[in-house]
Amino acid sequence: MVKYKRLPLETMVNTRDLGGYATQDGKITKYGVFLRTDCPINISEHDKQYIIDYGITLSIDLRGVDEVETTPSSFVDVPGHTYRHMPISEEHRIIRGEGAKQPGPPQPPKDGKNFDMGDAYIGILEEGKEWARKVITLCAEWEGGVMFHCFIGKDRAGTIAGLLLGAVGVGMTDIMMDYSASMSCLRPKYDKMGASFLPQ
């Protein structure tokens, strides 16, 4: 099967292969080993079968407890496929203003103060050092292709992608480029969510 940088799917817009990156020792990361994706919620049968045919045998769901309860992954209980829910902690829930639950990335404060996404990612990893270790270990030890996702595949999934790429010697510029690609890929999803969800 042909391997892609961004998979040609119907209902998932931010599914990308971490293959094809040069490492500092002159090697190239393999295609078909790790996919970073947006959440596979109510995806088409075409997309589900495509991912299975692509050789993915494990999906790691990085979302919070409430997100999984509200919108289960389409890969739960798929024959021949392993699903693992690995939230940052058992208490990890996405809370947005007025106590309402809303899945998604960290949001800028409404008081107008400066907001740095880098600080948010450091916070994720400081809070979840053991979480990150367990996810990376499972990825490294799994025999077969692995997909991992959060809600939109940019923040929690982005931290794991950065750690995986960095661990094998991919340069910082390529890691940043991989992260930045999500903004273009996610435009259709952001449009559906509405202007209030768009990064400024």
Topology:
Layout: E1 16-17, E2 34-37, H1 45-53, E3 56-61, H2 65-70, E4 82-85, E5 95-96, E6 100-101, H3 117-127, H4 129-141, E7 145-149, H5 156-167, H6 172-185, H7 187-193
Parallel strand pairs: 2-7, 3-4, 3-7
Antiparallel strand pairs: 1-2, 5-6
Helix pairs in contact: 3-4, 5-6
Give a brief rundown of this model.
This protein is α/β, with parallel strands linked by helices and 200 residues long. The chain has 7 helices and 7 strands, in the order ββαβαβββααβααα.
Q: What keywords describe this structure?
A:
about 200 residues, two-stranded antiparallel sheet
How would you describe this protein?
This protein has 200 residues and is an alpha/beta fold. The chain is built from seven helices and seven strands. The chain has helices at residues 45-53, 65-70, 117-127, 129-141, 156-167, 172-185, 187-193, and strands spanning 16-17, 34-37, 56-61, 82-85, 95-96, 100-101, 145-149. The strands form two sheets. It has a five-stranded mixed sheet with strand order 1-2-7-3-4, sandwiched between helices. Strands 5-6 form a two-stranded antiparallel sheet. Helix 5 packs antiparallel against helix 6. The longest helix has 14 residues, at 172-185. The termini are far apart. Mean pLDDT is 86; it is low at 94-105 and 195-200.
